[in-house]
Design brief:
By secondary structure, the protein is mainly alpha-helical. The protein is built from 13 helices and five strands. It has a three-stranded mixed sheet, with helices on both faces. The termini are far apart.
C-alpha cells in the first residue's frame, strides 16, 4: 500500500514536471513581434538562421547577375539604408537594442527584368530584382516593397514558417539536425520560408496574418524613414494590375486579396504621424 502511494506520488511528480517543462519550452520558443505585439512561435535559434542566411545569400548573389546601373543600385541602397535605420529605431524604442547587432545590412539589385520580386533574409540580407522597378516606379514605391520585406524579417515570419514545417512535417527536428540529415531539403525550406523559394522551385505563400502584419509594420517603417505611407495604396493597385496570365513572383509569395487595400488604409492614420515627424 505504502509503495503504491509512493509510486503514485512519483508518477504525479513526473507528470507535473513534464507539464511544466512543456510550458517552459513553449513560452521560451515564443517571441513578441515588434509593433503588433503578437506572439509567434520561434523554435529555430537565431544564430543558426543567421549562419544559414549568410551562406544562402552569398550563393544567390554568386549565381545571379548583379545590376551595373549605378543610379538604380544607388537608389536601392539608399532606400534600403533609410528603412534599415527606421527598423533599428523601432527596435530601440521597444527595448530590443541587443537585436540590432544581428543585422549586417546588405542591399543588392539583381539584374533580371522578368522577375518581379524582392526578399529579405535574416540579418538584413536583402535582394531586389530589376523586374519590380517598373511597378515600384519611384523611391517611395521602392520603400513600400523594402518596408514590407524588412517587416517580414523584423517580425521573424521566416522563423515562424520554418518552425511550423520542422514541427509538423519533420517531427519537431532541430534545424541543425535537419541540416545534417537532409541538407538539400532543409536549405530549400529555408529559401521558401524567406520568400526566395522561386529560385529553387518551391513557393510558400505568406499567410494572411503574416501579410497583414508585414503591411502594418512596413507602413510604419517607410513612414519613419521619411516616405509617404499613403503611396502604398497605388503601389498595391499597380501590382494587382500586373496579375494576369502569369502573376508576378512577388504576388505568388505575397498574396494580395481584394481586401488588402482596404486594410492598408486602416493602418495609414497610425503611420502618418511618423512620416510627419521624420527628418526629410
Ligand atoms: Zn509579404
Amino acid at each position: 500500500m505504502k509503495t503504491m502511494r509512493f509510486q503514485q506520488r512519483i508518477f504525479y511528480l513526473l507528470f507535473n514536471l513534464t507539464f511544466v517543462m512543456m510550458i517552459v519550452v513553449f513560452f521560451s520558443g515564443c517571441a513578441e513581434v515588434p509593433i503588433t505585439k503578437r506572439r509567434g512561435l520561434h523554435l529555430v535559434p537565431q544564430t543558426e538562421l543567421l549562419t544559414l542566411s549568410l551562406q544562402q545569400y552569398d550563393q544567390v548573389l554568386k549565381k545571379s547577375k548583379l545590376s551595373t546601373d549605378p543610379n538604380k543600385v544607388q537608389m536601392v541602397r539608399s532606400v534600403g539604408q533609410r528603412i534599415a535605420r527606421a527598423s533599428e529605431a523601432f527596435l530601440r524604442d521597444s527595448g530590443r537594442e541587443s537585436q540590432i547587432r544581428d543585422y549586417k545590412w546588405e542591399f543588392n539589385l539583381i539584374e533580371d527584368d522578368k522577375v518581379v520580386n524582392a526578399w529579405a533574409m535574416p540579418g538584413g540580407k536583402v535582394a531586389v530584382y530589376t523586374g519590380i522597378l517598373p511597378i515600384s516606379q519611384t523611391e517611395t514605391g521602392l520603400a513600400v516593397v523594402m518596408g514590407h520585406e524588412v517587416a517580414h524579417a523584423m517580425a521573424e515570419h521566416g522563423n515562424e514558417r520554418m518552425s511550423q514545417v520542422l514541427l509538423v512535417n519533420m517531427g519537431g527536428m532541430a534545424l541543425s539536425l535537419a541540416l545534417s540529415q537532409k541538407p538539400g531539403q532543409t536549405r530549400e525550406l529555408f529559401m521558401a520560408a524567406f520568400g526566395v523559394g522561386a529560385s529553387v522551385g518551391l513557393l510558400l505563400p505568406y499567410s494572411r496574418l503574416h501579410e497583414s502584419e508585414a503591411d502594418q509594420i512596413g507602413l510604419m517603417l517607410m513612414a519613419r524613414a521619411g516616405y509617404d505611407p499613403r503611396e502604398a495604396v497605388p503601389f498595391w493597385e499597380r501590382m494587382n494590375k500586373k496579375e494576369g496570365s502569369r502573376p508576378p513572383e512577388f504576388l505568388s509569395t505575397h498574396p494580395a486579396p481584394a481586401s488588402r487595400i482596404a486594410s492598408l488604409k486602416t493602418y495609414i492614420p497610425e503611420a502618418l504621424p511618423y512620416y510627419q515627424k521624420s527628418p526629410r
